[in-house]
Amino acid sequence: MNTTIMLFLLQDGITNGAIYALLGLALVLVFAVTRVILIPQGEFVTYGALSYAMLATGQVPGTARLAVAMGLVAFALDLFFARKALHARLVMRSVALNIVFPVALLGLVYALVGPHTPVAVNIALALLIVAAIGLFLYRIAFQPIAHTSVLVLLIASVGCHLALQGLGLVFFGAEGLRGPALSGAAVTAGPLRFTGQSLAVYGLTVGFIVALWLFFGYTRTGKALRATAVNRLGARLVGIRTTLSGQIAFLLASVIGAISGILIVPITTLYYDTGFLIGLKGFIAAIIGGLVSYPLTAVAAIVVGIVEAFSSFYASNFKEVIVFTLILPVLVLRSLAAPQVEEEKD
Amino acid sequence: MTQRLPLIIFALVLAVIPLLPGIPPFWIVLLDNIGLAALVAMGLVLLTGVGGLTSFGQAAFCGFGAYTTAVLTTAYGVSPWLTLPASLLVSGIAAVLLGLVTVRLSGHYLPLGTIAWGIGLFYLFSKLEFLGRNDGISGIPPLSIGSFKMLSPDTIYYAIWVAVLLAALLTMNLLDSRTGRAIRALRRGHIAAEAFGVQTPRAKLLVFIYAAVLAGLSGWLYAHFQRAANPTPFGAQAGIEYLFIAVVGGAGYVWGGVLGAGIVVILKEVLQSYLPYIFGGQSQLETIVFGIMLVLLLQLAPQGVWPWLMSKLPFKPARKTPDTSVKLEHRERAPGTSSVLLHIDKARKQFGGVLAVNDVSFDVNAREIVALIGPNGAGKSTTFNLITGVLAATGGKISVLGNEVANAPPQEVVKLGVSRTFQHVKLVPDMTVLENVAIGAHLRGNSGAISSMLRLDRTDEAKLLAEAARQIARVGLSDQIDQLAGSLSLGQQRIVEIARALCVDPMLLLLDEPAAGLRHMEKQRLAALLRQLRDGGMSVLLVEHDMGFVMDLADRIVVLDFGTKIAEGTPASIKRNPDVIKAYLGAAA
Fewest Cβ atoms closer than 10 Å to its Cβ: which of A181, B376, B483, B515? Predict the structure, then answer.
């Protein structure tokens, strides 16, 4: 094999792998806190990327309106579940979070949108939109069934994926979109050329890994989030607001997903349903990491990216087959290594 | 025959539908699709709802079935009927291979694993040259009987629905049998099932293969119905949809699969034809509604529609009472080389740095009630788990009648005539008391899955149920025999566990806190029962905290504290033992 090709493949693999790592981290985060296996993570990616791309062309993405609609549903749910004890403060908070925030955001989008809006503003708007959707998604779909088994949550998660993907088609159409590059800078090292884009990918991935690791290992809020995952009742008894933990987790996950999307949309054309596959590859990494370890997930994601790059070069037809079967030996090893002691569930 | 009546009526109605004048041909196509989906969903009911193994990958097995017949009939000119066994065989073999890696997965790894290979197989189907890549294979010959070709939807309709009804019948027969009870026990964890000799990995693989073969059958029918096969209907989306069907209908019920298929297929059709009128020409709107409905359903009716419908029925289906006059032969006794029934020599168990059982030694002789007592955390339940093979000992020897147990799995220990109850009740709450207790007799029957499906197991089954009913009568729960185990009080559930343990026909009965949750009278009845068992030749080793109960009942007492044996002797000597008093009441006492 030619060294240059190999280096190119490695570079390609690592760049993709870094994106998978980001997604894998978000999945681990959500699972660790809410026990939800977040299949719609891929939709956060496409929503982020395509909202950004549409904003860049001066259009208002449908996702902004979706955020308002979901906010209304979330508000209705808040009122319904608190109907026996409606305090003014509670209602005000719910109005602020579920109505004012998304409506203000929609207003902001309409006010700022245009063909000459700066890239940074578009990014910020896209991130805020997806963050709102992530937050409301937890409130609407998962909070009412937060106490159920991992399995029920997983099926609900699949339902959310279907709905969001279908909505993605409505908002963005069947045509793929590409966004403008974040920066034109580039560094050349030997035969390889590192664009500012790929450097941003590496930087953000490493940054998030370190930040999440510090957050969950060393902060009070991080530990509270982990406690929620292990035992919801226990966490509530010691005063942790478990619904808040879930919302924080979804918020973080949706922002991470949207960032990943915005990072790749200048490199490759994204379609409304691309996110699912990208998300699933993040999954493979997350599962290899056992849905608990951040560093292991990151390493696994890089491996997935590299395997993908090499198999698309040597056996491009079977690229997906190879990537997805990669998971099986890992899963088997994992369940052999940790014989299940789980009993008395659901 | 009355139990079969609804099924016969259903079959007759189905048979008549295509003959009715004025039935739109389109309805028949829908019914064909419902039947095809119902077959897959029925497999999922057994796999997911009953066995607790969630699979998102069933569509891939349809693919195996469809592509097998597609390749054999088009490339090799094999007759469609001959490809049926081939299709089933290929899906079955695929299930064995995938099952060997998949069913070992625990918890949420299992559904994720099925998503992964489901997608992997979809890409494989769409990339392989001999399967026609993305275009698939067309020109598949129709099914034919003599010169009659099943070309139109209303002719293959009969083939599809005969398959559905047969599959439903076989599946229900399977569930209502010795193997079926083992499968139904899987969902609640494997420890209890294994303690009565159920080979849980084998049972899991069995349901996995069964579900895959049903999916393969659906795929085979689909290929001859569409006369073509391409990768799309066998992808991840379809796999998710099948699971959705099972959940909608009621994942624990065979007819829930059929009902769910009806609801989902019709709903999809309605959505696809009317949504575009309401919202303009956008495609994929049905997936949005679909996804939202799935989430709503889980929030509002997680059990599905079928059980909800059944609970609305004005009458309850009657249950057969087992004929207790049928005798079940006694279990063959393991050959003994020792007069000591249970011999524990320096048993040791370490969990990391914690020494839960520290070189504990004691014996249980024939016809003896021995109590194992000690403060909380003394290692009593751990000792039970070591004896019954649930946990592997770190050191020491345990032997039953001179046969060393040597970390044998629970299924082997129970064969030696040691049966047990659990500190935390491990019954299957949605099975009746009778069915739960019959699991105890698992090793005393020998009918397998195939004979159960074909109802060749009835004499064997009658004996098992009779034995279960006898043991239930013996513990005094005959009035509750047909109630769901989950509806009993905790104390009664403990007694059900004892009946289940007695069904093993044991020589040694291990009872973990049997009297907890019982009222005074119930305790006295339990003590009388245990004495009677001892006088009948059985030995009992029990863990119990109720000292009055223990002191009255036990012939001998072994006391553990922090994993170490601190005393052993008659109740009278234990009461006076200073070490025991110190362990229970502290040094000052």
Answer: B376
